[in-house]
Design a protein that fits this description.
heterodimer, A: ABC transporter involved in vitamin B12 uptake, BtuC, two-stranded antiparallel sheet, 14 helices, 2 strands, B: alpha/beta, six-stranded mixed beta sheet, 9 helices, 33% helix, globular
Chain lengths: 322, 264
């Protein structure tokens, strides 16, 4: 994290970073270094930490719930719904979208879109006999496709400027980091990091199968609903604040599971840590590779993660995955 | 106290009647065998007792209390179900799988470990404990799941008031392990645990069951001791097979031998 604070378009020594932090904490942020560290990089690195942890732990919970190591928070429609919500605001917002308020409006649109999509998917999959996880996956795919095509329709009618905003937003980025956003992210992320590990035992039982979990005394339907709501809020917030960051929710839990086993009591905290680390590193890279310009962080997480993931997949039999 | 009592139970979870007018009583320490052709409703009856299917009419009481009146966790401490198929495809170790059986209990890590040891010993899976479940053979997986079920209800010296539902617990096991599992179920029954078992090998079933219930098309067509139930007419009528009924040379329980239809 210290290294991530030090790297950027203006590179600072670790000593400068330390000095900048001290100045910020003491409220004497007057020199340039202190401003860079305290006002720009610190909230950004912390936001990356919180969002990386949120995405990864949500992914771990979804994979356990769906009993599918390839499940991802986007499977239940959060990401697509949020993208659509954001695109809708960008295209229809017009002159409202100037500056700070515009950014918050887009975020709010993304959050609302994500949560609506999940609620819709959940309603589709729930009948008198309970919630079918398989139906939910299919409904998630359908809603994702629907949101995607409505999104494309919006893009078709959008002008160049809007198109650029939409596609940049879709790639994800932490450049909007500031303290209000960090506080919101920390509240949601912190709640998620406290709440989700409490379901570790239930998720372990769910890996056996739903009726097996029920026979072990787990209130399966209640737990399913609770997990989906937590993940929708967590991922919805993250998409709203930093755009879609692919790959963290899918691959981090998978990698951790291969290295540490499927027990959710360890899997969830370890995924949160690894997700935070991946996003902080990816964001630091995004800032320095083509400095002074920045790459979208989602591109980096994918470029860094995929080769590692593929090498694990090739050796999967060592880890007991089929 | 009866561990399990069914009175006129019917079930039609998907509209069509799966089970019609089932009635029996199970005392602590007794073993009930369920027999019948494929699709007769044996697994459905087990699912009904486990609470997966709701009865449409009739009464189902577990330890003199309606099945749905039990708080889920309390019920799970004394009612365990081994399904026919296992969906587990995540690389838990054998010991971790067995430990999952302790989820309904809050008996502490040390006592859980002791019980997991007992369950591993009962099923001869102690030597597999560090192996990954996904890399086991079919029979080893079956024994691991069985150990998990045993771990779920073990704990007290007296198992009176506990119930095990086993759906084909020996289908993938070799002869030695079949005998081992039968011995284990017998031990649990001696300690007061009641069992409902589906086994397709009817000679194996006759060797452990105190009572046998025969299902055909969802109806209860025979219910009684192995001696009473295993008759040549029953096999002709329910299974459409000609058999002779003999006796085990040492134990004396009935043994059936199918007669081949004469080839013309």
């Amino acid at each position: 994290m210290a290294l991530a604070l030090a790297s950027g378009a203006v590179s600072l020594s670790l000593l400068d970073v330390g000095q900048g932090l001290v100045d910020t904490v003491l409220g004497e942020a007057v020199n340039q270094n202190a401003l860079i560290v305290g006002q720009i990089r610190l909230p950004r690195v912390l936001l990356a930490t919180v969002m990386g942890a949120t995405l990864a732990i949500s992914g771990a919970a979804m994979q356990g719930l769906f009993r599918n190591p390839l499940a991802d928070p986007s499977l239940i429609g959060v990401t697509a719904g949020a993208s659509l919500g954001a695109a809708l605001i960008i295209v229809t917002g017009g002159s409202l979208l100037q500056g700070y308020i515009g950014l918050s409006l887009v975020s709010a649109g993304a959050f609302v879109g994500g949560v609506i999509a999940v609620l819709f998917v959940y309603r589709l999959a729930t009948s008198a006999n309970g919630t079918s996880v398989a139906t939910m996956l299919l409904a998630g795919i359908a809603i994702t496709a629907l949101s995607g095509s409505i999104g494309s329709l919006l893009e078709f009618f959008a002008d160049n400027n809007m198109l650029r905003r939409i596609s940049l937003w879709k790639m994800g980025g932490l450049d909007g980091a500031n303290y209000p956003r960090l506080i919101l992210a920390s509240v949601v992320g912190g709640a998620l990091l406290v709440a989700l590990p409490r379901y570790a035992g239930a998720l372990n039982a769910l890996l056996l199968g739903e009726s097996e979990a029920r026979h072990l005394g787990i209130k399966v339907d209640r737990i399913k609903l609770a997990l989906i709501i937590w993940v929708a809020v967590g991922v919805g917030t993250s998409v709203a604040l930093v755009g879609t960051i692919a790959f963290v929710g899918l691959v981090v839990p998978h990698i951790v599971r291969m290295l540490a086993g499927p027990d959710h009591r360890y899997l969830m905290p370890a995924s949160a840590l690894a997700g935070a680390l991946l996003l902080v590193v990816a964001d630091a890279l995004a800032r320095v590779v083509v400095a002074p310009t920045e790459l979208p962080v989602g591109v980096i997480t994918t470029i860094v993660g995929v080769p590692f993931f593929i090498s694990l997949l090739r050796n999967r039999h060592h880890y007991g995955m089929q | 106290m009866n561990t399990l009592q069914l009175k006129g139970v019917c079930a039609a979870p998907w509209g069509q009647a799966l089970l019609k007018d089932i009635a029996f009583t199970l005392q602590p320490g007794t073993v009930l065998g369920l027999a019948g052709p494929n699709g007769a409703g044996k697994s459905s009856l087990l699912q009904l007792i486990a609470g997966d299917i709701q009865p449409s009419t009739g009464q189902l009481t577990f330890c003199d209390r309606g099945l749905t009146e039990w708080p889920p966790q309390e019920r799970a401490q004394r009612l365990a179900f081994l399904p026919q198929m296992s969906l587990l495809s995540f690389p838990y170790t054998v010991e971790e799988v067995v430990r999952l059986g302790r989820i309904p209990h809050s008996s502490g890590y040390q006592s859980d470990s002791d019980i997991v040891e007992q369950a591993l010993d009962l099923t001869d899976t102690a030597s597999l404990r560090h192996r990954l479940y996904t890399q086991l053979s079919g029979g080893e997986k079956q024994r691991t799941q069985l150990a998990r079920i045993f771990a779920q209800i073990l704990g007290q010296e007296s198992l009176s008031g506990s119930l095990l539902l086993l759906d084909e617990p020996t289908s993938a096991l070799d002869l030695a392990h079949q005998q081992l599992v039968l011995m284990a179920t017998h031990q649990l029954a001696m300690r007061g645990c009641a069992l409902v078992v589906v086994i397709h090998d009817l000679n194996l079933m006759a060797s452990i069951a105190d009572q046998i219930l025969v299902l055909d098309n969802g109806c209860q067509v025979a219910y009684g001791s192995p001696e009473q139930v295993f008759t040549t007419t029953l096999f002709k009528e329910v299974f459409g097979v000609d058999v002779t009924v003999g006796h085990h040379p040492q134990e004396g329980y009935p043994m059936i031998t199918p007669l081949r239809p004469t080839l013309l």
